[in-house]
Structure formats: C-alpha cells, structure tokens
Amino acid sequence: MRARTVIIDTDPGTDDAVALFLALGSPELDVRLVSVVGGNVGLERTLANARAIVGLTGRQVPVVAGAGRPLLGSFTAASHVHGDDGLLGVVLPEGPPAAPGVAADAIRAVLRGAAPDSITLVGIGPATNLAIALLTEPALAARVREIVLMTGAVGEGNATPAAEFNAWSDPEALSVLLACGRPVTLASLETTAQALCTPARKAALRALGGGACLRAVCDIMDRVPAAARMGGLGHVEHDACAVAWLVAPHLFATRDVRTTVELAGASRGRTNIFRRRLPGPANARLLETLDADGFFALLGERIVALNPPGGLRP
Ligand code: BDR
Ligand code: CA
C-alpha cells in the first residue's frame, strides 16, 4: 500500500501533540509538511511546540510558521485549556529550527509539485493557513485529494454556546475550505467526544512502556483535566480523530452531510451540519461514530513504534 501524502496544519496544543505523534508514527501517512497556525496559544508557542514534537520523533519533516491571527477579527487563545505554553507545562527538548518562509507558500509549493488529486490536507487548528494557500492560487485545489478537519459541532460549541473553537477562531477561512470543491471530512465535537481518554485508557497507554514520544504523550494526557462536559469521566482527544480517519478508517462510520458556517452575530463560527434533511447537495462527510477502544489501541501502537523502549528508532 502506498502511503497517503499529507500536510498537517496545526496549533499545538495538547491534543494536537497527540495527533502529530500519531501521524508521524503511522506508515500509512507520508507527512510532507507541518504548517503551524496561532490558535490554542500564540504562534510563537505553537511553532516551538510543533518543532519540539517533530524533533522528538526524529523525523525529517519541515515545520513552517503561518498565520498568527485569523483572516478577520482578532486572535483569541485557549490558554485556559492548554496552558500559557500550549502543553500544560510539559517541557520537551527544543526541536529543529523552523523551515524558512511562511505556511501558505510552503503549502502551495507542495501542491504545485504534486499530481492532481494527490495531497490530503489535515487541518486541526483554525483554518487560516489552508485558506490563504487556496485563496491565493485556487487552481491548486485540483491537487487536493481530501481535506480532513477537526472542526465544528452539530450541537453546542466549546468556544461559545454556538461554536467549536477551530471554527469560531476563523470561520471565514473554514468557509473557504467548504467552498473549494474538494472532498471535506469533518471530525466534529460529537465525533471527538467519543475519543474519551479515561484514567483506565491512560494507564493502559503508560503500561506500554515506550520511549520518549509515548512518555511525552502520557505526561501531557496526565495534565489535561477531566472535562465537565464529559461528566468528569476524562478528557477528549479531538485532533487525533482527524488523523485516525486517514490511518484506520474502519474505526469510523460516516454520513454525507451539508455544512455551512455562520459568519456573523452571536452564532459566528457555528457550523450547520445537516445530517438527514439536507438543504442542498452534500458537501462534506461527517465522522459519525468512532470505535474508541480501537482508537486508543491505535494511538498506543503507533506512538510506541516512534521510539520503542529498546531504542530501534530515535
Ligand atoms: C479544537 O480546539 C482546540 O482547542 C483543540 O486543539 C482542537 O483542535 C477542539 O475544539
Ligand atoms: Ca488543535
């Protein structure tokens, strides 16, 4: 099987870190570029965290800085969730330097060098970088095979009552991606709520032993408080759901949906995800159910493989 070529756009972020480790540990994916956006914390920190995460895996994947604010409006971090440093105080060794240039240029460069329908864009932060890349050279959309996003909510949001954080952070950018004509797959808050990281699942991961990457993941998970919205049973691994779809699609059941995003007023950033009575043609695929035990088994297997206890890989 040939690995799928992906670009990951991210704002690490505790759950972004887990998603990046999963992607970099999965032979099904050929990660060509990690582009970084301000989101959970400011760009300076998300960039340092992305560099450190990639560095810990020993993979030679360029990490490039992108937008530090949304297309419109002002930047708001989620430091109350991810800490001021984005990783809730877990300190990783300094990673390799960032690649020169800016994210939108680097994304376009990968697309330009690619065959039609060949590059998968994975967006697990505000969609700004991906939108700028496609807005500035729309013909490159033809090179995109699929856009997989952790964004949106069918029901209540987590940034506002109406909106999920990534969608709310840059709804205009999300609307560009939804309208670009390429297949879009959504991991919404309802999808990711199923990736519930309970104390038992954390203990099972820790028991795998593993090397530096698994230890980092377990240390991060230990610091994320249980979510009130999950009844205090654990926290949710949002972003790794988007990556898991590409690595192990059999873990999900999906539904074709029609999705729009609200751009104004109190519902700004709200995604209208119509699941049954679609007011127009379907424009996205929603990841509707997740085999959570399979998901956590996958996380453990792939993150251990990045640097097993015996030390075959860095
Ligand atoms: C999304 O927002 C961020 O806080 C997380 O990293 C995730 O991408 C969840 O709403
Ligand atoms: Ca994120």
Describe this structure as you would to a colleague:
With 314 residues, this protein is α/β, with parallel strands linked by helices. It has one domain (4-306): Alpha-Beta Complex (Inosine-uridine Nucleoside N-ribohydrolase, Chain A), CATH 3.90.245. The chain contains 12 helices and 11 strands. The chain has helices spanning 14-24, 43-57, 79-82, 103-112, 128-136, 165-169, 171-178, 189-192, 199-206, 212-223, 238-247, 292-306; strands at residues 4-10, 29-36, 63-65, 119-123, 144-150, 184-187, 196-197, 235-236, 252-261, 271-274, 284-290. The strands form 2 sheets. It has a 9-stranded mixed sheet with strand order 3-2-1-4-5-6-11-9-10, with helices on both faces. It has a two-stranded antiparallel ribbon with strand order 7-8. Helix 1 packs parallel to helix 2 (43-57), helix 1 runs parallel beside helix 11 and helix 1 packs across helix 12 (292-306). The protein is globular and about 50 Å long. The two termini are 25 Å apart. Calcium ion binds next to loops.
